[in-house]
Amino acid sequence: MTLYDSAKKTKREFIPQVEGKVSLYVCGPTVYDDAHLGHAKSALVFDLLSRVLSANGYEVTYARNITDIDDKIINKAVEQNKTIKEITDFYTDAYHKEMALLGVKRPDIEPKATESLDAMYALIQKLLDNKHAYKTDDGDVYFDTSSDSDYLTLSKRVQDESEKLQRVESSSHKKNPADFALWKSVKDDSITFDSPFGKGRPGWHLECSAMIEKHLSKPEAKFAVDIHGGGADLLFPHHENEAAQTRCGTNHALAAYWMHNGFVNIDGQKMSKSLGNSFFLKDALKIYDGEVLRFYLLSTHYRSNFNFNEEDLATAKKRLDKIYRLKKRLFDMTHEDEKTDFQEELLAALNDDLNISASLALIDEMITRANETLDTPGKHKELKRETLSNLAYIKKLLGFGVKNPYEHFQFGVDEEIKEEIKALIQKRDEAKKVKDFAASDALRDEILAYGVNLMDTPHGSFWEKI
RNA sequence: GGUGCCAUCGCCAAGUGGUAAGGCCGCAGCCUGCAAAGCUGCUAUCCCCAGUUCAAAUCUGGGUGGCACCUCCA
Q1: How far is the CA of A270 from the C1' of B52 (A)?
Q2: pLDDT at A359 > cutoff 90
Q3: Does residue A231 reach within 7 angstroms of strand B, measured from its CB?
Q4: Which of A53, A94, A324, A393 sits at 20 to 30 Å (Cα–Cα) from A384?
Q5: What is the DSSP string of A386-429?
Q6: How far is the CA of A368 from the C1' of B41 (A)?
Q7: With a 7 Å cutoff on the CB, does A159 touch strand B?
Q8: Can you name the CATH fold of A310-408?
Q9: Residue A237 CB closer than 7 angstroms to strand B?
Q10: ipTM score here?
């Protein structure tokens, strides 16, 4: 397969360090608030990547961290008079529940910063020993960017002189304005951690490097992980700094391939905390089925910026509906998984840097071909078998079509309403039996008023939520 | 200001040298008591200009217009 490597800014053949095995590390959430659509996008993109890697026969070790040490967490804990664990457990739990609704599989490893402090201390010490880090008078430990000749090679940034000057004034303890904190000393009574460097908190960038060393890397490997992923905004400074720490504090570079997913905008506007237009996942999930959101957020290439709006979401649902309608036509049939050309083509499309558009086009064409044949008289045993295999493959590889089709089409409808619709359909069936079409059509209008579609089939009348 | 990305049908969106995938919407038809669903058919020469080439949406140069990062952020 080929992947776009954002460090080399080109698409290239993916070759893991150890044949048949892939290590994947993705920057996960800082659990101080509810997850928004951007978190969902990132989790979905790398969920898809891990599925595609597995489908190619790789044994994947997927790690996504939980950042549970952070100033924002600490501030919130102080504000609400809670422990940081109370705060982080709450949002971690919410994150897991919401991701599950999106069909995002749990990574193999989910390291937490609080459980990786030893690895962080070890890395800081190594960097101090190597003279890649230094202590300041007030007890902070900084990474010395001037000691790393490869610094900024990942993000391809050029240090700006005027920028340098501005920042020198604001942080006089640093040798170089680009230097970043590995350990921040804290003198007051707020929440701190005891380290060999005194009381304080680890720097933001440190945990990823430390966790990767602890959980994924082999000392003799050239790269700590095969693939490192995260949101596009993390390229600088977060990933640049991570890469520097690992390069200077260990015997290897951080990642062989870097992957960054594009941003989610809302109605053309950047979504951000400061603009106050964050679309929280929990709110979206109240209105939309998690699988519809999954389909929608994955329907555009992972590197593009994504413009979230309800109109496109509705279009995405219609496209997902097509999978479910075909599923419905084959409902209750069993099958043995078998390989088909379609499956091969689908995987080939995804192997091209996760070309989701080509994949969805293949799926739509497969659906149309199947419907076309099913519309003609005959039993079509072979086609049905193949189609069921194809649908199962789509479910496994992309996570689309995971539910019972009747559930899918009745998302968000109360049991009470369902009963009312059922009663109206029964009345209408009776009217139809005696060919009282005026009454039948009037009843249909009543049913449609519930915001559903009604469809008459040889097996009875069915409804779908629009 | 620095760095980088993008510009394809009404909308969403693939395609990186050989003559424009797919979805939504729309129109016509088949099917249907009528619908819905499904199926069939129809709908773009790729922001502008110049260049390279037998051949360019796809390469080069110049415009124009969007956007992102450079500060915590997926």
Answers
A1: 40
A2: yes
A3: yes
A4: A53
A5: HHHHHHHHHHHHH--S-S-HHHHTTTT--HHHHHHHHHHHHHHH
A6: 15
A7: no
A8: Four Helix Bundle (Hemerythrin (Met), subunit A) (1.20.120)
A9: yes
A10: 0.95
